[in-house]
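Risk register update: the risk of archive-format incompatibility is retired. Evidence:
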Amino acid sequence: MSIATESLSEWAARLANGANRSVTITRRTLEADLRADLFLVLFAYAHDVVGIPREDIRQEGNVLSGRFDSLFGRCVIEYKKPGRLESPAERHGAAEQGIRYLKDPSIGADVVIITDGSTWGLLRDLSAGPEAGEQGWLDLGDGHLTAAHERFAWRPNSPETAERVLTLMATVVAAPVSGESLKARLGSGNPDALDCVSRMGVALHHRSRDGRTDSLRFHRCLSDRMSGTCRFLFVAFPVVRLAN
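Archived output:
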């Protein structure tokens, strides 16, 4: 069965089975190994099914609140050493770390998920509001008066839990507007950005006074690439160059 035709329940089964295999069969003892195992499923689902652009999927990023493990759009996933979340103290510490990520404007996350392969902790930032088409909710509690670990929904690994994880990931697909996300889209590591800058440089070099050659060439760039990167550069970059 192809990726495009798999149902949500089938993806959830793949994720739950992958976590179980990592913990009980291959007996992973390192956080990095668990992350590598689960990322195989999470990346394929986020990119190929949900449609999160590759540049909005990041691994191990340094931000104001620390170093996160994975970012899918606006969903942060933190991996812990297998078995670590069995400890109430470790669970509380992981929850505090996750809440710091939600409050960190440099990430722009609305969902934090924590897992050690056997247990999943899920927290949605209720102040962000529901996505378009998503059912609304009422926040009847005061997060400031609730212990960090009590703000998370803790669930054992299962296909049902995995389905909730994937559903949460799919509700926050838009990348946050931050320095890091702009760098991922427009930085030197993005070949589309380099291509567009190169084309614009040629167009600006050959433009005639009061001519429209540069605009026409930019339009051709957009038509050829059809990327959000090119469209952003078309609006922002030429203005700076021409002003100089």
